[in-house]
Design a protein that fits this description.
Length: about 350
């Protein structure tokens, strides 16, 4: 694997290493000032006691032993505490390895300080610790979460250029970022790039791009990917069906909606509350009272109770009925209202 010697994208972050000590100090002092009552009974006290014993030993335990302590704290989301511990470890002469530095990068990203995470990467390069795929994936994910999509893509491109092989997780992170910003063209191209580089996109990857296409009004392209997914032997999940059904409903393609619903039932995919609510919303917008009511009946037969969102769709339907009162007999309006009350009743 190629070493990342002096990448242009990361050069500015190497100089940012000096800022880490400032943040480390502030986090460390804030941890020391944390009153005892704020520490929950989740073995954090035991972890702190064990850490103090390890720091006080001579010779010091290896970095491997320290990471065994840090990893559970990360799972407990004690990110600031882990950063403080890493600072104390460095001050005590404990040398980091790629695994412990990856933990530190992850903590900074989870704390919303991806800039400091990038500085840790610069520090790794200066210390001669070679970053790995986990390092880059963590940083790319942090950049995507911070809505810094262009930087995330730049880091990905530089990662590949320097000889590091992204894994499926890295590809999925970038794909998710492109979909979030609605870059449909690049999202589709990226899906193809995954295949070219030997990664078979899974259902989640396809679903991410299909959702992006649907949200941007590209239903035809979404259906093409949907067909491709099935041809390759993959089974679409409920999320993908919901995306397509919602897009079709918005375009008034009720026949296509019914076709997909039948396809789901033929494939033994149970409709969830989101599917039913999408269909009810479409019927309500069309003023199709009987179909909307019948859908609720079917929903309840399946053991799914309408929620607040579903009831709001019927509120729109009631408004539609009220606006049509001049064109309907009072008897018909009363019948509709009574039927709705008997079927859609949140107090049942």
């Amino acid at each position: 694997m190629a070493k990342l010697h002096s990448p242009s994208f990361l050069h500015s972050f190497v100089n940012g290493v000096r800022h880490l000590s400032t943040l480390h100090s502030s986090l460390s002092s804030s941890v020391k000032r944390t009153p005892k009552k704020h520490i929950s009974f989740d073995n954090v006290d035991d972890a702190l006691a064990l850490f103090d014993k390890m720091i006080g030993k001579y010779p010091k335990p290896s970095i491997v032993e320290f990471t065994k302590l840090l990893a559970p704290l990360v799972r407990m989301k004690r990110y600031s505490l882990v950063v403080s511990m890493c600072t104390q470890m460095e001050l005590s002469g404990v040398s980091h390895n790629v695994y412990s530095l990856n933990i530190l990068v992850n903590c900074f990203c989870q704390l919303g300080r991806v800039d400091f995470g990038l500085s840790v990467l610069g520090k790794m390069l200066k210390l001669g610790v070679e970053p790995d795929v986990v390092t880059f994936s963590t940083l790319i994910n942090g950049l995507v979460k911070a809505s810094k999509f262009s930087l995330a893509v730049s880091l990905f491109d530089e990662m590949v250029e320097k000889g590091y092989q992204p894994d499926l997780i890295t590809y999925s992170i970038i794909l998710n970022g492109l979909s979030k910003i609605g870059d449909t063209d690049r999202a589709v191209r990226f899906l193809r790039l995954m295949e070219e580089r030997g990664f078979k996109p899974n259902v989640v990857a396809y679903g991410t791009v299909i959702d992006c296409l649907c949200k941007n009004g590209l239903l035809e392209e979404a259906l093409h990917l949907f067909s491709e997914l099935k041809v390759k032997g993959n089974r679409p999940n409920i999320v993908i069906y919901n995306c397509l059904i919602h897009a079709m409903s918005n375009l008034g393609q009720q026949k296509e909606v019914r076709r997909l619903l039948n396809e789901m039932m033929d494939s033994n995919i149970s409709l969830d509350i989101f599917t039913y609510t999408i269909v009810i919303d479409a019927y309500c917008k069309e003023g199709n009272i009987l179909e909307a009511i019948d859908t609720v009946r079917t929903m309840r037969k399946q053991g799914i109770e309408p929620d607040v969102v579903t009831y709001n769709k019927f509120f729109c339907l009631l408004c539609w009925i009220d606006s049509c009162c001049l064109n309907c007999s009072k008897f018909m309006v009363v019948c509709c209202l009574l039927t709705l009350m008997s079927v859609v009743n949140p107090w049942n």
